[in-house]
Amino acid sequence: MSSASRYTYLGPEGTFTEAALRTLPEAATRELVPMVSVPAALDAVRGGEAAAALVPIENSVEGGVTATLDELATGEPLMIYREVLLPIAFALLVRPGTRLEDIKTVTGHPVAQPQVRNWLAANLPDALWESSASNADGARLVREGRYDAAFAGEFAAATYGLEPLVTDIHDAQNAQTRFVLAGRPARPAARTGADRTSLVMWQRDDHPGALLEYLQEFAVRGVNLMRIESRPTGEGMGRYCFSVDCEGHISDRRVGEALMGLKRTCAKVRFLGSYPRAGVDPDARSHASAAPRPGTSDHDFVAAADWLARCQDGRA
User: Fold this and answer.
1) How far apart are CA 89 and CA 239, in angstroms?
2) Is the distance from CB of 251 to CB of 264 less than 8 angstroms?
3) What angle do helix axes 210-219 and 253-265 make, rounded to 10 degrees?
4) Rounded Cα distance, 203 and 83, in Å
5) pTM of the predicted protein model
6) Which residues, including other chains, have CB under 8 Å from residue 21's CB and lie 6 or more apart?
7) At 116, is the secondary structure helix, strand, or coil?
8) Fewest beta carbons less than 10 Å away: which of 138, 156, 244, 286?
9) How far apart are CA 54 and CA 79, in angstroms?
10) CA separation for the pair 127, 121 (Å, rounded)
């Protein structure tokens, strides 16, 4: 297949990322290529080897996936076009015949450990945990005899010739991971009425109230923030950028004007896309977002611009 028909994802086969990718209708007609890391999956898109990459970006227990946040903030720009929400529950995968009392070593992705910590303490208090590159890679290592058990999706058992000794393991009820489909920059996905806009902003200089100034660009226009995280820029201690998700679409006047305000006040702003929010019924999208605060609807912005023009023309 050509690169236009190829999607990459955080591999190897059997990861939650692959499971999330296969929920997209278009995945059935694409060549799905596992990659060893988030940077490798995204770099394949940057290099023209794939049309898009699906990578994890946020977990409801552990928060942001730093490898993805940092990779989207640096390097050749990419844009997010879709997101997927996947419920997360783990199975304890073992070689056939292994009993719970036989398990001395366990493995899994570092993000998995906080989601099963209490279960481990209650059921395998003496087992040694060592992290693996992904949950599926942990399953591969169990198959090879490197570890006794791995925490992974139950669906990975058949791929690696293992058995799910215990299923539906999770310390937090209703745990979810959010994944994003990133491609090369182009026109954003069409507005749906229940959208998310993602961006990264860099401080111009460090001074009291700097972050407040940036947040006010959203607040005064009635734009709801859905997530904000600081990430070090690598330029020295105390130098940060901010990864932000806000409610709405860049074509919404209040969102577009907030972005223009940030462009004026920040050292740099990277627009990562406006795209449909996952988990919203398509038939209810027009009612999914909260009604704009008074003075922040598109009509209010148009009316204010018209009033200013009339003032400038002496017609106020």
Assistant:
1) 36
2) no
3) 160
4) 27
5) 0.85
6) 7, 9, 27, 32, 54, 84, 179
7) helix
8) 286
9) 12
10) 9
User: How many residues does the structure list for the chain?
Assistant: 316
The sign one gets for the Cα dihedral 160, 166, 167, 172 is: negative
Q: Which two tokens stand for residue 51?
A: 């049309």
Query: Which residues partner with 107 through β-bridges?
Result: 130, 150
Token readout for 143 is 């198959």
Contact 188, 230 (CB under 8 A): no
Give me 41's structure tokens.
């999956």
CA distance 63 to 69: 11
Residues 6 or more apart from 146 whose CB is under 8 A from it? Answer: 107
Give the helix ranges, DSSP H, for the chain.
16-21, 38-46, 66-73, 113-123, 135-143, 156-159, 210-219, 253-265, 298-312
- Asked whether the beta carbons of 151 and 135 are under 8 A apart, the reply is yes
Task: For the chain, 316 residues long, give each residue's pLDDT as a single digit of tens.
Answer: 567 889 999 989 999 999 999 999 999 999 999 999 999 999 999 999 999 999 999 998 888 999 999 999 999 999 999 999 999 999 999 999 999 999 999 999 888 888 999 999 999 999 999 999 889 999 999 999 999 999 999 999 999 999 999 999 988 888 899 999 999 999 998 999 999 999 999 988 888 888 899 999 999 999 999 999 999 988 878 788 999 999 999 999 999 999 999 999 999 999 999 999 998 876 665 555 667 778 888 888 888 888 889 888 888 6
Cα 111 from Cα 315, distance rounded (Å): 61
Rounded to whole angstroms, how far apart are CA atoms 313 and 316?
Answer: 8
Q: How far is CA 280 from CA 12, 21, 276, 292, in A?
A: 29, 18, 9, 18
Check residue 3 and report its DSSP letter.
G
